[in-house]
Amino acid sequence: MELTSQERAELQALVYSPDVVATVATRARIVLWHAEGRQKKDVAALAGVSRPTVDLWLNRYVTQGIAGLLDRPRGAGREQVPCPGRKLGR
């Protein structure tokens, strides 16, 4: 994987920004390490993730760019159904 100087700068900005969540910074590091020529198994060991996780973030970066490394919005979750004798947490 080859990165332009602009892509590299954007990823490094994510890594070093105090306003970026640690998981997003790790995803940016994964892309940078792989672009340096490191093998995926070595990138996985450095990042403390599995090899399939490295593949996931590299593929998301290739297809979506920086936006692919950001957390996606999550749904509201399941609606709690009242049961007799049980109080809801809301």
Structure notes:
The chain has one domain. The N and C termini lie far apart (47 Å). The relative contact order is 0.13. It contains four helices and no strands. The protein is mainly alpha-helical and 90 residues long. The mean pLDDT is 89. The chain is 53% helix and 0% strand. It has helices at residues 5-16, 22-35, 40-47, 51-64.
**Low-confidence blocks of residues:** none
Specify the number of helices. 4
Share of helix, binned: 40-55%
Binned strand content: under 5%
SSE succession: HHHH
Mean pLDDT across the residues is 89
Q: What is the 3D shape?
A: elongated
What's the story with the biggest beta sheet?
A: none
Number of domains: 1
For the secondary structure, the number of strands is: 0
Rg from Cα: 18 Å
Task: Find the structural class using helix and strand composition.
Answer: mainly alpha
Cα distance spanning the termini: 47 Å
What does this entry show, briefly?
The chain is an all-alpha fold and 90 residues long. It has helices spanning 5-16, 22-35, 40-47, 51-64.
Question: Which terms would index this structure?
Answer:
90 residues
What's the SSE blueprint?
Blueprint: H1 5-16, H2 22-35, H3 40-47, H4 51-64
Helix pairs in contact: 1-2, 2-3, 2-4, 3-4
